[in-house]
Amino acid sequence: MLNPYFAFGVPIFLLFLYIVFALIRRKSSLNYIGFVLLLIATFMMTFSFQVLQGLWTLEESHATEQLEKLGYAPEILWIPLILGAVLAILNLWRGVKRIKSFRETTDLKK
What we know:
Helix content is 81%, strand content 0%. It is mostly helical. 15% of the residues are buried.
């Protein structure tokens, strides 16, 4: 799980997917695209947290030999987790804002 192609490849692919759906969201009026963006961001955050848990398990078992073979600084594993959390919070905020505006427009119609 700590293979660099896996640990960073999946978040990079998810970020690419997020950008594609964000562009689709801008050019269309589909309401559910924001929810898809939230799902992608939370999956990136969850996946990155699982990778960090794998790192912590290695650190607890004192497997310094395997930690030295990683080929990258383990601290950079935090970047996809933080990025996923920021994107998830951003999309949650957008969703709450959209729900509030929807409620306001339905209250005005009454």
